[in-house]
Amino acid sequence: MPEGPENVLDLVRRTPLSFLGTVTRLGATRLATVPAGERTAVVQVDTVLHAPDAFRKLAGSEVTVQLSAELDPPAVGDAAAFFTEGAAYGETLAVTEVGRLPADAVAPNVSAVARSADPMPFTALQRDIADEGMVAHADGVDAVVVAVVVGLEQVDAGAVPEGIFSEHAPDWWRARLDVSHVEQGRPAPGPLMVLYPNSRDFQWHDVPKPRASQEGMWLLHSTEGTLAESAPFQILHPDDYQPVQKLETLQAARR
């Protein structure tokens, strides 16, 4: 497995949890539901590198690692950066190893976090990954504008096509935007109506819900069918709203 910044970035992209840890036991487990075997190890977490909110405070605890069959098993006392996916959670945590790097390979990231406001060593890498995704997403939408929300209203039920009412109905609302800059697409500066699903149902929960006076960069999709009579564009994807500052990131990526 190659080492270096590119490999670190790839591993962060592929896994939700990574940490610097020291192997304390081999062929052991800390979780009753995960049997001990040749490919299990107990690892003390020294530094969390990146993690969901619920697991940011793992430092100082021991976790059970189901070691990858594609990597040589570590020795007791070895320190390494483990890149993992969740396997089981009970009295402690068990994870499945996706990749592993020597501790030295992530030392610059660990040192850098002490000089920044980032909460974890890989936070900057996660921002880079998110920016890559945002740029790729922007390339596939119909318009990108910088605008402030100046009005919100529910779409008249009579304007909603028949047959789409269900427990997962989107509950269409309309945001009136005041566009100050057009980065992509056919809108003009000035007023622009945009549809968005206001439902909190799981199908629509992560789609941005505009708020009054909210300013940002909006990535918009053309409205099709009968709904196009209510607004020419709509918000449909979790990445369709970005802070205004992300415009510079998008422009720099396109140069």
Topology:
Blueprint: H1 5-14, E1 17-26, E2 40-50, E3 62-66, E4 79-89, E5 93-102, H2 107-113, H3 123-138, E6 143-154, E7 172-184, E8 190-197, E9 215-222, E10 233-234, E11 241-242, H4 246-254
Parallel strand pairs: 3-5, 8-10
Antiparallel strand pairs: 1-2, 1-4, 2-3, 4-5, 6-7, 6-9, 7-8, 9-10, 9-11
Helix pairs in contact: 3-4
Count of DSSP strands: 11
Percent strand equals: 35-45%
Helix content: 10-25%
Order of helices and strands: HEEEEEHHEEEEEEH
Spans where pLDDT lies below 50 across 5 or more residues: none
Question: Between the first and last Cα atoms, what is the distance in angstroms?
Answer: 33 Å
Assembly state here? single chain
How many helices in DSSP terms? Answer: 4
Q: Return the average pLDDT rounded to an integer.
A: 92
* Rg (C-alpha, Å): 23 Å
Structural class: alpha+beta
Q: Report the biggest beta sheet as strand number plus sense, adding barrel if it closes.
A: 5 strands, mixed, barrel
**Strands of the biggest beta sheet: in what spatial order?**
1-2-3-5-4
User: Judging from the principal axes of the Cα atoms, what is the shape?
Assistant: elongated
In short:
By secondary structure, the chain is an alpha+beta fold.
